[in-house]
Model the fold of this input.
Amino acid sequence: MSTADDNPIPEPGAAPPPGRGGRASAAGSALEKSLRILEAVATPGGPHRLTDLTAAAAVPKSSTFRILASLIEQGFVRPEADSRYAPGPRLRALAALVGAGEPADVERILDELRRATGQTVHLALHTGESLTYIRKLESDQPFRTASRVGMRMPLHTTAIGKAVLAHLPAEEVRELIAATGLPGRTPRSLTTPQALRAELEAVRARGFAVDDEENEPTIRCVGAPVLGPGGRPVGGVSVTTVTFLVSREQIETYAPALRAATEALAPLL
Amino acid sequence: MSTADDNPIPEPGAAPPPGRGGRASAAGSALEKSLRILEAVATPGGPHRLTDLTAAAAVPKSSTFRILASLIEQGFVRPEADSRYAPGPRLRALAALVGAGEPADVERILDELRRATGQTVHLALHTGESLTYIRKLESDQPFRTASRVGMRMPLHTTAIGKAVLAHLPAEEVRELIAATGLPGRTPRSLTTPQALRAELEAVRARGFAVDDEENEPTIRCVGAPVLGPGGRPVGGVSVTTVTFLVSREQIETYAPALRAATEALAPLL
DNA sequence: ATACCAAGTTCCACTAAGTGGAACACCGGG
DNA sequence: CCCGGTGTTCCACTTAGTGGAACTTGGTAT
Done:
């Protein structure tokens, strides 16, 4: 029951192959490591063990230990009884301040979408080169999708991610591709810049994206972006289904409700 | 309209008098500064300017600048148009993860208390040696109290603070007094360990605390603690009034509604 | 009992990383 | 045109962070 490392996104700065000291992409300062550890601590799934944090944050054990000690001293992490670590009061206060944007309405809007479609609904934020799921509402179905709040996913293989990419300046998309490449996650993943760019064009035209088993086999999603001030995508919402229950045509019928949700969300996020 | 430095709590490690290098209380590592800057950035009141952040976090200008650059690179801070700084996507994602407890209900409970009393209501978290206000609901009165979300206050001069202290192990209270002293904020502040300890005893017996112009002249509050798992106080709620409208006797009549609120809050926080 | 393994904790020589004062650049008033 | 306040850059100094390895602890399979 390890709680960490079900995360498909390799952390930046993880495993810099020794030798070949060609500058490459700067590995990691104290701050960077500390922040990754903080995120790991905040990950849902109870208080975490040192080893899991080490793995999740991709920071050497002794460094993780030392940094945790600092974070504890600062009140950002609270040591639990059996050498497990949980978010501390100061982190919670920080979170409360940041999350001051009416979260009640957010929940209401997402739940409306869930009821309208009867399917699993996800809300994710665009975090750098990846997507972070911050809310998940389960479908009425007896199935549970494997996704979890706190999980990170690539942009180019998910419906939300493609919706976000479609509304990003072309230049930024280019940089992203250069930085991360386009690793495939299933046989259907788009793995060439050409294919992806064509897809993004289509997404932009339609106003929503479809992930047809490009991220996980048997999983099919529709996603739309939430656009912040200036039209910049800050994240997105998706409706997730299993392929043997909802056809490609059917899933597109969710699009109007989805769009309504993301538009309502825009001023709140 | 500067946004910073209306904070009565001197940051730990601020202004370590040079000379006299007597070890004292370790001043501030990179991490510590970075976290204070992050908190400053998250403080409500629009995107902040460099100078304000520098002041609020008590970090030299050039260091603030450099650290901000790192935080931006990490996606924890977003640079706004005119060299102002706002919380970045990764910080927002982090906040969303931590604040997973149903904020809708929290809001509802606090609003109920506000309507029941007609007065200003505060929710604060216990953050180390201080209290951080994380929610404020204004009264119906035409007056506005000066308190602000994000503000920090001492424990020993506020109703919430005393309520928290009263439910902390005696040993911890002792350490706190040793660490911070008991600086007075008004003529009525309790500034001796004896006076404070007697007061805490009374608070514990009553189940709520009263601040009778001990923190600000003309301000009178009742406060009760929110107890987390294991009976540990994680924060508290207060009802705030002005002395010329509500007498000392009157304000105690709010206690039952207050207690009801804090008890309802306990499982949510 | 004993041996083994995995997790947590401590140590330490090495050096990158962070430090902050001061100089510089920029801008909008007075 | 000059001035005060702010954002930005520079750089010589040294502190604070680094992570491999050794040590400790506790559980469990033999």
